[in-house]
Amino acid sequence: MAAGHVLELEGVRKSYAVGTPAQTEVLHGVDLALRRGEFCALMGPSGSGKSTLLNIIGLLDRPDAGRIRIDGQDTAGLSEAQLTHLRGHAIGFVFQYHYLISAFTALENVMMPMLLERGRADAAIVERARGLLDRVGLLPWQDHRAGNMSGGQQQRVAIARALALQPPLILADEPTGNLDTKSADGVFALMRDVNASQGTAVLMVTHNHALAERCDRIIQLVDGRIVAPATSPG
Ligand SMILES: Nc1ncnc2c1ncn2[C@@H]1O[C@H](COP(=O)(O)OP(=O)(O)OP(=O)(O)O)[C@@H](O)[C@H]1O
Ligand SMILES: [Mg+2]
User: Fold this and answer.
1) Mutation probe of ligand 1 site: the residue of 27, 28, 50 with most atoms within 8 A of C-beta
2) Per-residue confidence (pLDDT) for residue 234, from 0 to 100
3) Domain limits, the chain
4) Which of 58, 135, 172, 187 allows an S-S link to 204, with CB 3.0 to 4.6 Å?
């Protein structure tokens, strides 16, 4: 287990409907390692298990077997509270349907992870949230309700929010999936930029070959198995 990895999976298996006649194994023993600061695309046909894998890596779901190390920490045997803490600090989430709170402003959405962490708003949190919105080019939109913003803008807010606690890893499930080409390019460029300037590793599920080609590496998942080299070269 190298110290240079932000994520390491070994033999991860996941079945649904366990113990029923409909039981199906979706992930058949996935091994995967992501270096610190690496930007990887995760591709594969619909139904191959990409979202299932991302949910397991994001500690939103538990595997039936296998090991998961995040930011050097083995997740086996962690309590729910410890998993929640690790999820909050080590991982930023950017999903296709951004899950912003649409009635809240852009600024309030970005502040949310910091509010949950500190328990109350203070000037430092507001300043940091403003800085993050500036980073994604949306400072002038800070007081707009998220629900009134375009898809591309909402995804930028989601990226700012994902960066709030400076996680070493961002998990993105089709972050550009419902955007037009220009907005998709902008959102991808922003993630690339964050990755380059802050060294945040990114694992991005995408069906977009042009964007995947611009990542450091493409991991292919087919029928719950990784078919392309899943460890970092070198
Ligand atoms: N909660 C669940 N209960 C039962 N089966 C599930 C559940 N979630 C996913 N599956 C099944 O697991 C398989 C993999 O689904 P998953 O959503 O991970 O695929 P995906 O690669 O993300 O596909 P897409 O590209 O369409 O998003 C599918 O056959 C799906 O039906
Ligand atoms: Mg999916």
Assistant:
1) 50
2) 46
3) 5-10+28-101+166-226
4) 172
